[in-house]
């Protein structure tokens, strides 16, 4: 099936251009981004690469790093780069805030506080980034086991608390607003469970110090971060304290350093030679030139299994907008629906449809070449599966039997690093943040607000009041 940009099938593009594999890829920091299997010829790539200039991306990037208002609906800058680096625009406050939460993380990680478990309560950006980092970089050397509570699941909470001791369990309430219903309901349950240990064993990572103190936290246990930190950009702030407690402040600092290196790369030269911008241009091509409404992120390094969950919020909550910066309805599609998970698992669930069903679902396959702690044969099998899926998606297969036919020409890109480490993960996550920003500039939308989630929350409150305490009859639900 030829795509709307009318290139020849990818197999033909490779045959006609022996140098394609090298030309349609880039190296940036520890990452290699290979987009040669996208249905894009050299003219198409040149046209894409010229787009940043047409929207003066360089100037928009300068605004971002200078702390200018890039979130007009909330009249806020977006200085998440300052949380991990030394951005002058943010002042010294963030340095002290970072010192405080990393100091606590170090005492938790070493066991100096005598705690064996840490329960992190948070949702969305107050959960997804820290959980991904803790999962990806866990070296099993922490004094604390970290347990992640996000959505309301009282059975899981009961099971967890039956296994914990309030004397040796710490709680982190992560909430920028300190007003998210799910988080506060769970925080109240944990406050009751901790009893006399509550004030000594509970910390908050929040931009609303007043609300955290009103909840009963000791002031010195409130780990503040600035209100210009977007929830989905808050991993780098004290919201990351639980991840830092699990992996250790040393690795967390390496994560911050990797992200800062990506910041400097993006601010220095935001063009198609950078991973951030090429990710943006690839997503632009898939969403607007090929009109493909989905995007899969599939991890063939199992440590990145939660990457698609993190990117689901980062991309969809940032780019899922219906009006532009002039408050006019957008005249083209915006966010794709992001899905994903772990590589070979999905080969036994969704890949049949992605190979043979008529609809095309573009994929980014993310993996690593080596992992010193993995079994070499398993690591090699992961890489072989990644390359095998990419080959089948791009080139298809024709056996003469219709039911065995794979059309191929399914857009797939590879994002590989030689060996995944904290620095490389930081570089990758920051690069995706900047890719989202670059796309927002291309699409003239605000990536830093999320007004779309407010009405659901408001209605939920109304229904909670209408449902009240009485038994609910399934055939008598309020309209
Ligand atoms: O989903 C809406 C949202 O505001 C996200 O942007 C945010 O990450 C999440 O809810 C949690 O918000 P908070 O950190 O304020 O509890």
Keywords summarizing the entry:
binds 6-O-phosphono-beta-D-fructofuranose; six-stranded mixed sheet; globular; Rossmann fold; alpha/beta; about 475 residues; 2 domains; 21 helices; five-stranded parallel sheet; 11 strands
Description:
This protein is of the alpha/beta class and 479 residues long. It folds into 2 domains: 10-66 and 269-452, 3-Layer(aba) Sandwich (Rossmann fold); 80-253, Glucose-6-phosphate isomerase like protein, domain 1 (Rossmann fold). It has 21 helices and 11 strands. It has helices at 10-16, 20-23, 42-49, 51-54, 57-65, 80-84, 93-110, 128-137, 154-162, 181-194, 198-201, 209-214, 241-247, 249-268, 275-289, 307-319, 343-347, 351-356, 376-395, 422-443, 454-467, and strands at residues 25-28, 31-34, 117-121, 145-149, 169-174, 202-206, 222-224, 294-299, 337-342, 363-370, 412-419. The strands form 2 sheets. A 6-stranded mixed beta sheet has the order 1-2-11-10-8-9, sandwiched between helices. It has a 5-stranded parallel beta sheet with strand order 4-3-5-6-7, with helices on both faces. Helix 8 runs parallel beside helix 13 (241-247) and helix 13 crosses helix 14 (249-268). The longest helix has 22 residues, at 422-443. 6-O-phosphono-beta-D-fructofuranose binds next to loops.
């Amino acid at each position: 099936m030829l795509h709307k940009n009318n290139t020849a099938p990818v197999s033909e593009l490779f045959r006609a251009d022996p140098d394609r594999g090298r030309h349609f890829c880039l190296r940036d920091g520890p990452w290699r981004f290979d987009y040669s299997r996208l249905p894009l010829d050299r003219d198409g790539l040149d046209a894409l690469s010229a787009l940043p200039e047409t929207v003066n991306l360089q100037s928009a990037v300068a605004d971002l790093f200078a702390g200018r208002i890039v979130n007009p609906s909330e009249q806020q800058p977006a200085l998440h780069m300052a949380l991990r680096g030394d951005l002058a625009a943010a002042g010294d406050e963030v340095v002290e805030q970072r010192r405080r939460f990393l100091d606590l993380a170090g005492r938790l990680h070493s066991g100096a506080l005598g705690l064996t478990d840490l329960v992190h309560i948070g949702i969305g950006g107050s959960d997804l980034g820290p959980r991904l980092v803790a999962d990806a970089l866990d070296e099993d050397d922490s004094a604390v086991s970290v347990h992640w509570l996000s959505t309301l699941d009282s059975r899981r909470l009961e099971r967890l608390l039956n296994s914990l001791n309030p004397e040796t369990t710490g709680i982190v309430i992560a909430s920028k607003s300190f007003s998210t219903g799910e988080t506060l309901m769970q925080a109240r349950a944990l406050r009751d469970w901790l009893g006399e240990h509550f004030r000594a064993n509970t910390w908050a990572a929040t931009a609303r110090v007043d609300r955290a103190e009103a909840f009963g936290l000791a002031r010195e246990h409130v780990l503040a971060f600035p209100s210009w930190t977007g929830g989905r950009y808050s991993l780098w702030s004290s919201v990351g304290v639980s991840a830092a407690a699990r992996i250790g402040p040393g690795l967390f600092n390496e994560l911050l350093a990797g992200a800062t290196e990506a910041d400097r790369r993006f601010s220095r030269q935001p063009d198609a030679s950078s991973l951030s911008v090429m990710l943006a241009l690839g997503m632009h091509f898939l969403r607007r030139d090929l009109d493909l409404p989905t995007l899969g992120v599939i991890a063939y390094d199992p440590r990145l299994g939660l990457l698609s969950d993190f990117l689901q919020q980062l991309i969809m909550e940032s780019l899922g907008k219906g009006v532009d910066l002039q408050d006019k309805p957008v005249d083209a599609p915006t966010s794709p629906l992001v899905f994903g998970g772990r590589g070979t698992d999905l080969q036994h669930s969704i890949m049949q449809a992605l190979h043979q069903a008529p609809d095309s679902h573009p994929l980014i396959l993310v993996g690593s070449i080596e992992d010193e702690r993995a079994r070499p044969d398993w690591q090699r099998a992961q890489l072989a599966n990644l390359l095998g899926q990419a080959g089948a998606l791009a080139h298809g297969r024709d056996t003469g039997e219709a039911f065995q036919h794979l059309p191929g020409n399914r857009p797939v890109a590879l994002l590989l690093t030689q060996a995944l480490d904290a620095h490389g993960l930081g570089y990758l996550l920051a690069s995706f943040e900047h890719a989202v920003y670059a796309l927002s500039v291309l699409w003239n939308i605000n990536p830093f607000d999320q007004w779309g989630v407010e009405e659901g929350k408001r209605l939920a409150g109304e229904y909670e009041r209408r449902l009240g305490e009485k038994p609910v009859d399934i055939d008598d639900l309020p309209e």
